[in-house]
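Hi Y.,

Following your request, here is the sequence exactly as I used it, all 224 residues.
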Amino acid sequence: MNGHVKNMNFQQRAETAATLLCFLLLLAVDSTKTVAAARNRECSSDLEQTLRLTKLLHRQTGVLIKTYKAFQGEMGPGVCKASGFDVPDPNISGLEPSERMASMYTHLQAFSSHLKRVQEQQTDLQPAGSMVLSKINESRVQNKRLTSSINSLYHKFFPNLPLPEPVGGPTTLPPPQTVFQQKIYGCVVLTTYKMFLANMSKNVKTLKSKICRKAPKSTLNSGR
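Below is the corresponding structure, written out as tokens. Let me know if you'd prefer a different format.
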């Protein structure tokens, strides 16, 4: 009888221990998923902020182009799509998320140099306090913010991958130009920049779906 009672007690303790172990394992799994969910929310939030800034700059550039054209006088149709000014390609390259984000970064840097040149040229062509000058300066400030955001995100998501140097070295700017060439160059830069920002918005959306994984459902709550 005593042996039977001992076996029952041992069995009860074993079952209790197994139940406790199972519960602790479930807690550990659920805790891991909770941490992963928090990281995914942070990831989505970071990219969403960058996407909003990109869209804002895209809208502002559209307004800037209209203002720019109004201050240049008659330039003729199609001049804002002229070639031969070494303006960056608006398309973003790369197959992997890290490559596409690096392409965004190098493009933003290149356009920063061109926007600076346009501002310098327009400073000589426009009166002080001109609306077009203030809008170009605003775009340069926002471009710097967006560049900093992409730089931070790249190092956050790909800490072991250094940002590659721009292909071909530093940004190539056009040689001295006539006044008319300067007007065309500025319009080409702004128009191409707006196209790039549209492409960047699409790419940030895609990166968000690829980098920020959806958190799996909690094991503890799955049976509810």
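The first helix runs from residue 2 to 72.

Thanks again,
Q.
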